[in-house]
Write a structure and sequence with these properties.
The protein is built from no helices and 27 strands. By secondary structure, the chain is an all-beta fold. It has three domains: 94 residues, Immunoglobulin-like, CATH 2.60.40.10; 92 residues, Immunoglobulin-like, CATH 2.60.40; 81 residues, Immunoglobulin-like (Sandwich), CATH 2.60.40.10. Strands 1, 3, 4, 6, 7 and 8 form a six-stranded mixed sheet that branches. Strands 10, 13, 14, 17, 18 and 19 form a six-stranded mixed sheet that branches. The radius of gyration is 27 Å and the shape is elongated. The two termini are 35 Å apart. InterPro entries: Cell_Adh-Cytoskel_Orgn, Ig-like_dom, Ig-like_dom_sf, Ig-like_fold, Ig_I-set, Ig_sub, Ig_sub2. Its main location: secreted. It comes from Arctia plantaginis. Belongs to the hemolin family. It is found in: Secreted.
Length: 283
């Protein structure tokens, strides 16, 4: 298997892979002229070759493209590489990793019926197998999620900050895979919202959220870093930032979601959060 080969996702069950070679404009595929008398003469060899692993492939079109049919067992997926016969020998094309897009018929996890406390953060989750990863959006009571700066969509989760009475309702997640041209909607999970009726101190705790530990982003992108914490009274959150090769500094921001907008190079580094007075609560 080749390293660092980007995945080529294919939407239809029949893929047509193009043979792309370095300096393609300078390379002319070697096509021997047809013999004057075709009788008893060998047929000119196909100027394009394709391989998958150690297997030579035959479904090569005259323009060098390779046709690949999707197989249920997944054996047609994998790394492919072409070559072009040239006057000086063979010129290898760029390898590619073929995968056929898919979206499962059913969610592996649906939003659950649950209860949240007013003033606390809460997270709703769903999950579905998809290749490439599906774009997830959320619905509340059958409509698109209201525009609210307390709502944050994090991969397969919906984070609600500072829960209020109006957040109660039936939530569903909607998964869309544009490559597979498929959309699925989960079962509904009802969120009830209540006041905390206890008078006891509740120890701080970090909500489990799904977020990559290493995030790669382009300049001017937007990156959302979430660190939701529950507890009574409301815990104090501290954010820290460590630029490459420099000392760690404390940020003035104390919210549970740090949004880096119009990302710039000086914002590259390690971000961490922890609960004041609780050294064991950090991420």
């Amino acid at each position: 298997m080749y390293k660092d080969v980007p995945i080529t996702w294919w939407s239809s069950p029949r893929a047509s892979l193009s043979c792309v070679v370095p300096d393609a404009d300078r390379i002319v595929a070697r096509r021997p002229p047809p013999p004057l008398n075709t009788d008893d003469k060998p047929r000119p060899r196909q100027p394009y070759l394709w391989r998958k692993g150690n297997e030579d492939l035959k479904r090569v079109l005259s323009n060098g493209a390779l046709e690949v049919l999707r197989k249920k067992d997944g054996s047609s997926e994998g790394d492919y590489q072409c070559a072009v016969r040239h006057t000086a020998g063979l010129v290898l094309g760029f390898p590619l990793r073929l995968k056929f897009a898919y979206l499962d018929k059913q969610f592996s996890a649906h939003p659950e019926n649950t209860t949240a406390w007013i003033g606390q953060p809460y997270v709703l989750s769903c999950d579905i197998n998809s290749g490439p990863a599906a774009t997830v959006s959320w619905q509340k009571d059958g409509d698109a999620l209201p525009n609210n700066n307390r709502y944050h969509v994090l991969k397969n989760q919906l984070l609600i900050l500072d829960v209020q009475k109006e957040d109660a309702g039936l939530y569903r997640c909607k998964a869309t895979n544009s490559y597979a041209n498929r959309t699925r909607i989960s079962h509904g999970g009802r969120l009830q919202v209540e006041y905390y009726s206890g008078f006891d101190h509740v120890e701080p705790s970090m909500l489990p959220i799904q977020q990559d530990s290493i995030i790669t982003a382009k300049k001017r992108d937007t990156v959302i870093l979430a660190c939701p914490v529950t507890g009574f009274p409301k815990p104090t959150l501290i954010w820290q930032f460590t630029p490459p090769g420099e000392r760690t500094g404390e940020l003035e921001y104390v919210g549970e979601v740090l949004t880096l907008q119009i990302l710039d190079m000086y914002e590259e580094g390690v971000y961490s959060c922890h609960v004041e007075g609780h050294t064991n609560l950090f991420k």
